[in-house]
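Title: Prediction job returns without error message
Component: structure pipeline
Severity: low
Priority: P3
Assignee: unassigned

Description:
Job completed but the reporter wants confirmation the result is attached to the right record. Sequence as submitted:
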Amino acid sequence: SPLPAPPCQGGEQDNGNLIYPCEGEKTVSQYSGLLPAGETALSALQVLWEQGFRTFKWKIDVAAIEEELNVFRQLIEAMHDLGDKEKAFLRLDANGGLNYSQAETWLQTCDNVLEIPEFSVKIEFLEQPLAVTQFESMLALSAVYKTPIALDESVAKLDRIQECYSQGWRGIFVIKPAICGSPSQLRKFCQTHNIDAVFSSVFETQIGRQAALNLATELFPNCRALGFGTNDWFDDNNRETWLQHLWQQI
């Protein structure tokens, strides 16, 4: 059965339109599904799609860039065909492994996809394209390309979130509550600055998951899909029911 999704607070805007609807039944579509790296993503996409996912995260910088760009084109075409005009979202995660030229190539490729009006696939963001030490370069790239950049490793801790914000970052922050630091201080920062955030998992314990999802639900700023959509979370005895029980307690 579909996983229950967290409550929304208005929806994230894209040229005046809601990217993620916040009305009606809450389903697994408000979580992101994790695709395996490489060509295996193509077969995994079908399975996750049938489970109800409409936002997907795909690891890149695992193989040669030419090979991955080829798979990327196949992947977005498959998403478009599966959806039959139904909107789908793809997140690319480089884990800080690209060089500047490669990041430009990926961003330009993603921009080309965004410029096809009839295409039903939206490249939601490129996550952590460059190393943590290259913050200024990522800031510069974010000003040039339409495809949003999300910081992950660069903002692993609350002090780094605060520092990047103070240095001008107004893009997306990937927040992992289990490792970020003080929940009360994180809550205060998010409420004060109204940042664009994606809350994500680091494969916590069950207690950690509950705390992270409680905080994500409270601070959920814009209805971006939560980065908790992986069956690897579930143990064999509680695989189907723990999230349902969790949301009943919130």
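Comment from assignee: result matches the submitted record. Residues 65-83 form the longest helix (19 residues).
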